[in-house]
TrEMBL record:
Signal peptide: none annotated. This is Uncharacterized protein. The lineage of its organism: Bacteria, Pseudomonadati, Pseudomonadota, Alphaproteobacteria, Holosporales. It comes from Caedimonas varicaedens. GO terms for biological process: lipid metabolic process. GO terms for molecular function: phosphoric diester hydrolase activity. Pfam families: PI-PLC_X (PF26146). It comes from the Bacteria.
Amino acid sequence: MRLFNLIILLGALQINTPHALKASNGNLPDNMPANEVMFVGAHNAAMSSAEGWVYAQQSQDLEGLWKAGVRSAKIPLHWYQPEDPVHPVGLAKKGLSILKGIVKGKIEPAKPYLALCHEFPANNNCRLTVLQRAGKPPQDSLQFFTRLAKLMSENPKEVFILILESYTNQRSKTNGAAQYSDADARQILQADLEKSGLARFAYKLTASQSTQNASWPTLGDLRKQQKRVIIFTTNMQDVEGSSYLNPLHSFFRSTHWETAKIENCGMADDHTPAGLFHMGVGPEASIPHDSILGKGLKMINKIKNTGIVQQSDYAKVNSKEEILKRIEKCHAVQPDAKHPNIISGDYVEKGDMKNVINDLNAKHAEKYTNKK
């Protein structure tokens, strides 16, 4: 029975099954194919107030997101050269570098590293990110990978999908990466993944597994091999020669992010139809209405109705009603009736996202649990 046949039934149920209190997918049966599992996804997982972001998309750090049931995360990767003088820390480092250069008879700028930035343009050395982090430099991708690897080690039955929104090809004099070739960029990314220990958990998919109804490994297969992280990247250059990175757009169809574009499901027409489906439930404004920033903006708008920045009620955005409504709309416009493999949102601990997905997974798993 297809997962979508359960939607109407679940709409009438209260979210109170024991599965809502258990691990996100560690309790699912070994014989369940991995591409039939639904994952709670954190959009811009590293852009969290707990990680030092003033303008944030999440409130929990990586470990907190894990406890909230997140088993998929999207993170943007950009180049960052530390001594960029756009902020005081960078200016101080640049001054120290200049002094060292005078002593040595030459100035040696620090090497750029891959950082978690929320940035436009992509080659701007994370200057917008530094502003969003109140002057603090961006997070190192190696640190994030290392923390995720630790969580995977501590939870040997859990399966995780990591999406790299990769701008490793956006190399410029501004971010210090202009001298790197495509091969250099690949080597640096893979070195981070391997040094962190995350690469040893990574599973490589085949091209034939990108299609609808393709044969996938079961959860038990991934657990037995301890290859329980599937890493996708938006940048095809990252994949070349890699034994564990997978091209995102070959495997996933996707919706537009904002729920305001919910008409006809809001499918992104720039993605070719593929076997997996990533559904976003994000609002146009990612500032929570009950946050300090949200309350401040609301007060400003009361004094002077600018309407420039709106706030969102994430308990409603991530509610069971809204999630099921969007799933049904997407089901209606997709002839092959593919269920979402990942449902991504902001502030995922608010609302019902974890419970809805756990209930859907539990119902869908019944046909595997009951197999003799």
